[in-house]
Write a structure and sequence with these properties.
The chain is built from two helices and eight strands, in the order βββββββαβα. The chain is of the alpha+beta class. α1 crosses α2. The N and C termini lie far apart (39 Å).
């Protein structure tokens, strides 16, 4: 059985990334899901905070840990390695930097790239859905 506290490993073009997903609570602040990416000893935290029209993890009672969804039909499971790879690719395309990033800004492009990967033959800029 895999330990939920252990960092998982992802290799992208020869670079080793370690990653984990956590659901966090802070007194007086909304729940949040945090995808932590580690590369060369530095951490990039992709943070999703619960809010109006946004679901981050199990905080809404009907969702599971790792689920992030916005009110525009974009949703992913942060526990899936393919989703983490899409976030790594998106962060790399924007210029990798250690620190905290707003996950809601990254979600639409990651969700579209995951949908395109699941639907062969669809142009990469085509939005998901009918």
């Amino acid at each position: 059985m895999r330990s939920e506290r252990r960092l998982r490993r992802l290799v992208v073009e020869g670079t080793v990334h370690r990653w984990t997903v956590r659901h966090r609570h802070t007194v007086g602040a909304p729940c949040r899901e945090v995808l932590a990416l580690y590369r060369d000893g530095a951490a990039t935290l992709i943070v999703f905070r619960n809010g109006a029209g946004r679901v981050a993890g199990g905080g809404m009672g009907y969702s599971h840990s790792g689920l992030v969804a916005d009110g525009r039909g974009h949703s992913v499971n942060l526990h899936e390695p393919g989703v983490v790879r899409a976030f790594v690719d998106e962060v790399r395309s924007r210029g990798w930097a250690a620190g905290e990033l707003d996950g809601w800004e990254l979600l639409p492009s990651v969700a579209v790239s995951r949908a395109a990967a699941a639907t062969p033959g669809v142009p990469p800029d085509c939005p998901p859905g009918p």
